[in-house]
Amino acid sequence: MRYKIVIAVFLLFWGIIIARLYHVSIKSNFYYEGLAKDNIERKQYIKPVRGEITDINGNLLAMNQIGFSISIMPHLKQTDKRLHDVVNFLVDTFPDLNKTVMMKVYKKYNSPYNHKFIKVVDFIHYSDMMGSYPELSLLKEIKIDAETKRYYPYGKYAAHIVGYTGRSNKKENKKDPVVNEVGKVGKSGLERYYNKVLEGELGYVVSKVTATNKAIDILEKNPPKDNKNIQLNIDINLQKMIYEHFKKSKEVGVAVVMRTNGEILAAVSYPSYDPNLFVGGISQKDWKALQDDLAKPFTNKLIHGTYPPGSTIKIGMALAFSKSLKGVLDTNEFCNGFITLGKSKHKFRCWARWGHGKVDLRKAIRESCDVYFYNKSLKVGINAMAKNLRSFGLGVKTGVDLPREYSGVIPDKAWKMKRYKQPWYKGETVIAAIGQGYDLVTPLQVARYTALVATSKLVTPIIAKKVDTNFTKRMIQPIHFNPYYLSEIRKGMYDVCNVRKGTAYRTMSKLPIVVAGKTGTSQVTSIPQSTKKRIKEADLAYYHRSHAWITTYAPYEKPQYVVTVLVEHGGHGGSTAGPIAADIYKWLYRNKYISTDKKEIKKK
Amino acid sequence: MESWFNLDKRIFKNFSYLLIIQLIPLFVISSYLVYEINIHLYNKQMIYYFIAAIVFSISVFIPWRRIIWWFVPLFYMANLGLLIAVEFIGKSILGAKRWIELPGIGITIQPSEFIKVAVIMMLAYLISRKPPSPKGYGLLDFIKLSLVIVIPFIIIAKEPDLGTALVLLIAGYGILFIVGINWKIWLTLAILAGAGAPLVYEYGLKPYQKTRIQDALNKPSYQVRQALIAIGSGGLEGKSKEESTQTQLKFLPVSSTDFIFAYLGERFGFKGMLTVIGLYILLIFNLLYISAKYATDYLIKTFASGLAFLLFVYMGVNVLMIIGLAPVVGLPLPMFSHGGTSFIIFAVIFGILENLIAFKDYNRYTSDEKITMQTKGTSVP
User: Would residue B105 count as lying in a domain?
Assistant: First the structure.
């Protein structure tokens, strides 16, 4: 009996064991098989090499320097003599390195769970390393890996367009697995806009590993997809020429050279910064210097600078009038120097004190008569004006291939109510008609809309010509205008540059090609308080001075190029912005971008 | 004494060959697995087998029945002494004080390994000296016998080596159950145990022991998890040596010793595990059969049942802990896991049992022989 009880108890236990074994090995076989496979397979990513950026002639604007990174073996104590010896040796070999920084980095990543070498030196240039490599490679405490570093040979010349890469943050890592592996991401400009293409695709190796993570066999290998390069429409030599021009004349401003199909040949925002400062992380001192500079070198004024368009708006304004109210441009206006509204005594003056007399459309453009536009705007009304101007590309994003573009402002009644919770006044319509008041546009918008006037096609500006292996698409949207008004406006623009009374006659008439254009002088409405505080008393006059605009296209007969220049606080458009535009056309002619010259046209 | 060897034939007639034959498949499978894991360990294992064979032979031929009256109490007391000595001069490894370093030769011994033999022998000796009445032992005898078990149990549990302590407790009381104790005592004990278990868990266990128990029941530890993966991925048939990645790539810890059963599962699958468990079941049944067969010889009865319980507890706890149903207490699979001490001790226990069976009628043989010798007229030297 007692034996039977004992055997029963034993059998019960054995029954439990066998049932459990059956469940684990047969019922859950598939599940555990998967876990066993997970155990031995380790996926390691291979970083792709970032694509390069070249200008239209193949000059490298963003490239990868080849060099090395240095890592130190983990699990060395802070007091370990070997650690100090190695770090000291590195500092002796490369005097630029900082011991405290390296020790700090080492301490941060050193833990019993980390079995990887700890990278303490991000980049040492190939040529610097060559001499010391044999010696360094003998130290078993350190590991030297091939590493690339982004380098911008033309530095500040194209910084606002090309942008720069920098170390990625947690948010960026989370969003993109490639960034997470590489640890670098395009932070601004094209580097940011085309980051997905430039960074390439990760490759990977699946290897069979032991419990201690030692690879013993390669199961699968997939190389990265990299070297996805981008070619731009930019000509870096033109870019450089414009930049140096600004530098020489000590002017702050923007110049855009665009083909009438939208391809941007040069886009300079002066002053600029050296993007190479950002690649390895910018120092506090350099960053503060950039931030404190009143000329705002860090701002890409091309798309982030918003200015009142001033008189450059008039060519578009005239088209807006014609679209808003049929026949409104057929009547002439009489300018006696000012208008008044209702019973108010406030005079809205024309820039010409004694007036222009009888003014038709062509004369209104040529001589930039304000009263003409005052009167027409009162007939049309702000909402219709704003609606049409926006459809011409003012006050809306241009869609250029750069990140975080600003849209500017073309106001209407609803906008003002939303923004200021106030009704619209007639006086505001009047000043909006001459590009003042609430009007704010970016230089690129002005260039884009100049191309529209030249070709009656609204294009999307584009910097990249070829992304990886694909040519970028040109987006061209034809807009129909009354041909008569359009030709009158163009003639007016011709007069601006080629007739003695024109505002840009002095600079533009002597060029080897025929240019048509419009100047503008936009008043500085207010200086931001933060800026004002830092301006020296003596410089105050400068900061109150108007911005100078000129926007042009050429050749007049068969428009191919648009050149738009803005000089901050440049005073009158024709005299400060004009010479820059003129130099650009000379350069284009000299470098055979424009083949048809004046004589040929005259022959025809 | 000189006539001893003349009796060989009849001694070997009584020898339980089956018991030894049953062990051979276990040795073969174990050696094969250890060979695949690490050839150096296999070589060591062969040395252990050799030593064990010698020790077994010696213990078969020690006249236990003749020396039991003085040897067993002495051996038991000496072991208790060693256990207590551990408390004072013992060496701590990983927080547990279980080892004594023998001065001069640098060998460490673990007295709790030997106490198992000592307790079983002591019980056998005491029971054979005063067998129970048909109704079983009374309370007084029960307490006396209990002391033999409980004293070393408390010392070992304090080391702490809960695994070995529990083996001792279960095997000891298992023997008492087989031999016979008045059922009223068992009933009282069962009630007390039922009421006391929660209290023991609350106050009697150290925090690490509690976590072990909880881990075993809730989330398996790294080693158990790897063991489950090994067994689970083996399936019905098991995998080839190269494909047994859990063991070959060292994800499975202590794969040759405590966790060898998991490798068995990975390598030979459910069939292999069933075979080995079957071998243990047959072995334990045979031991219980021997225990029941020699009902009147309390030495054999006690020893055989003690060995059966020992094997059952070791094997049961080892497998249960590998499949995550018991805490990881570090008990090997008896005579299967790679390891010297435990294996050799089992060899001794088997040797003693064989001796007891073989020389069961020693006293009768000697008297018989006198008769035969006289009738045949052979001279007695």
Answer: yes
